[in-house]
Amino acid sequence: MPIFVGSASSTIISQYAVGVGSTTTAGRDAGIGTANGEVIFNTSTSELQVFYDGVWKGGLKGPLKGTGGTLDSSSRPGFNIHTFTGSGSLEITSGSGTGEYLVVAGGGGGGGYGGDSVAGSGGGAGGYRTSSSFSLAPGIYTIEVGSGGGGSADGQPSYITNPGISSITSTGGGGGQLAAGRPGGSGSGAGAAQNSGTPVTAGSGNTPPTSPSQGNNGGTGGGNLGVTVTVSGGGGGAGGVGGNGTPPNNAGTPGPGSPNSITGSPVTYAAGGAGNFGPSSSSGSAGTANRGNGGGGAGGAGGAQPGAGGSGIVIIAYPTA
C-alpha cells in the first residue's frame, strides 16, 4: 500500500517506487522557504531537479519530443527529423537538449533579357546556415520558409524563431541583374553594360547577418568593346563564388552548393544560378524547389526568359534518447 505525502497526485512512497511532486518552473520559483535536498520534477523542462545552496540544480532529463512539419524517425537512426517546406511551427512538447538545424532561404531569380545581345546574370543562392549545437526546450518555434525570386527578384528569407530562446535567419539570394549584381545570402552574378569592355562590379554576398557566413559573391560580367555582345556572371553559392563571364560567349558558371547530411544522407543545397551570353536565345533554368538554388539568367536574344529561384527549406533534427 503506497504512502501519500502531500496530495495524492504529487509525492508517494511505496514498496517499489518513490514518486516526487511535479510542478512548473514558475511554480517551483514561487516556493517559500525551500530547503536543501528538496526534489521536484520540473514539467517545464522535463527534468528532475534538486535544491542545494540556494540554487535548483538539474538532474535527469527526459528525451526530446516534438511535433510539426514532416516527421521522419527512420532515415537517420536515433534521430527525429522535422522537415518544413512551407511555413509552420515546431512544438517541443517535452525534454530539453541539443539538436541540429539547416536553414536555407529562397534563391534569387535570374536576370532578364535586356535587349539584343544583353544577357542577364545568374541569381544568387539563398543564405545557408547550419549548426549541430541548437539548444531546444519545451515551447513553440515559428518556422518561415522563403520563396524563390522570379524575374530578377531577390529570394525571401527563411528563419526559425522562439522569443527569448533562439532566432536563426537566412537571407534570400540576390536577384540576377543586367549591370552590377545584387547582394543577398549569396550575391547574384553581374551583367555588363552593352558595348562595355570593362567588367562591372561583382555581386556582393554575405550581407547581414554575416556571422556565421551564409554564402559567396557572384561572378563579374563583361563585354566586347564596340560589339553588342555581353556575357554575364554566375550567381554565388553556399559552396563557392559564381564564375566570371568572359567574352565572347563564355557565360559565368553557377557557384556550387553545399552538401548536408542532417536527414541521414547527403543532399546539396544553395547552388547559384548560371549566367548567360549575348547571342543566346536560351532561357535560364529554374532553381530546384526546396534547395534554395538561384535561377539562371536569360540569354540576350528575343524570347529568352530568366529562371525563377528555388524555394528554401528548414530542417530540425534531435536525438530520440
Question: What does this protein structure show overall?
Answer:
By secondary structure, the protein is mainly beta. It folds into 2 domains: 3-61, no CATH class; 62-321, no CATH class. It is 2% helix and 30% strand. It has one helix spanning 25-29, and strands at 3-5, 11-13, 18-19, 22-23, 39-42, 47-52, 55-61, 65-67, 70-72, 79-84, 88-94, 97-104, 128-136, 139-144, 158-162, 166-170, 222-223, 230-231, 258-260, 267-269, 313-319. The protein has a 5-stranded antiparallel sheet, with no helix packed on it. Strands 9-10-21-12-13 form a 5-stranded antiparallel sheet, with no helix packed on it. A hairpin with a 5-residue loop joins strand 1 (3-5) and strand 2 (11-13). Residues 1-9 have low confidence and may be disordered.
